């Protein structure tokens, strides 16, 4: 499976980074970042996703459909999406057009992402940032905090229940939100049992990379209305957004549709046009 290959690559990347900067050091840096937000470590209460002025959870909690807009250069299924990749400017355009949060791919081998994309975008825009990577080690969560993320992606198919709960706990102590991603009924149940505040339904099967837009609609009924529900992948038109809104979807993550648009501001405004 492609996902297994990506996960193995992520694991090797983490082990290499630990040789350069040990876990204890990146943990210390991450908690210093948290303390600079004005909240002492002992005052932090669970996974609420509050991170200074950059709360990802709060951005997705407002009425209507919230938009997480993705900065992505390539993918395993589509190859090179954006040969010209002014990533900071793209994030700025999303902010100007009304994005609620920005997702930044940092996986380097299969998505041609880089940590510096996240770090530089964090220094230039005032929106919550999701570090979009394949989290297989707690090291990556501490690293995300240091890079300026407000949220990390936790994929159910990569983790067991103990790992998921532990990683969500680390997120909470750092003031990060965790976007817990599921694709099947079983994974939705796993996310709910772990106590996820935000559950994302990936319409793309990460085993085959095939997309079924109706997957999020089908699984919506399995997620409690008190949990933020995010639809991911295969979202292309204002009519798609309207249908998701009618099914009480709280937020959407849109990547390729925006990345392929010549005018990203206009493309995002058009997607938002059907929201009442």
Automatic annotation (TrEMBL):
PANTHER family: INDOLE-3-GLYCEROL-PHOSPHATE SYNTHASE, TRYPTOPHAN BIOSYNTHESIS PROTEIN. Pfam families: IGPS (PF00218). This is Indole-3-glycerol phosphate synthase. Coiled coil: none annotated. One of its GO terms (biological process) is L-tryptophan biosynthetic process. It comes from Enterocloster bolteae 90A9. Keywords: Amino-acid biosynthesis, Aromatic amino acid biosynthesis, Decarboxylase, Lyase, Tryptophan biosynthesis. It comes from the Bacteria. The gene is trpC.
